[in-house]
Amino acid sequence: MRKHRVVLDIGIEGAEKWEAVFRNIDNLRTDLGPSNVEVEGVIHGKAWPLLVKPEKGGAVEFHPKVEAAIRSGVKLVLCENTMKRNKLEKADVLPYAATVSSAMGELVKKQTDGWAYLKLGV
Predict the structure, then answer these.
(1) pTM score, two decimals?
(2) Cβ(18)–Cβ(34) under 8 Å?
């Protein structure tokens, strides 16, 4: 069976919308089966606090959800262009998250490689 691959465009702000992001991730993994789906969330714009340490303005109340998602196999990456605009360094990013040079570039690469694209929180 072919593994589903889904890239999530996450650039929104607000606790209610972020709750929905993690609910959607859980739903994807439940509906498709955790071993049958590869999920990458590309964090940019106003969603940057999801992956940043508390002392730099991170959304500490969401860090347990972020860590649980990553530990379950979901990849969450933060846009370095967003980091620059917000005066953040790689050391400010949660240790279990990763970065990519450009959110838009990462989204295009994934779609070119056949990943399904979902924009969350619109």
Answers:
(1) 0.95
(2) no
Q: The dihedral of CA 100, 75, 9, 21: what is its sign?
A: negative
Angstrom CA distances, 93 to 11, 37, 98, 100, 102, stand at 16, 25, 8, 12, 15
Separation between Cα atoms, residue 26 and residue 12, nearest integer Å: 18
For residue 35, with 0-12 CB atoms within 10 Å meaning exposed, 13-18 middle and 19 or more buried, which class applies?
exposed
Distance, first Cα to last Cα, the chain: 32
pLDDT in tens, 80-113: 999 999 999 999 999 999 999 999 999 999 999 9
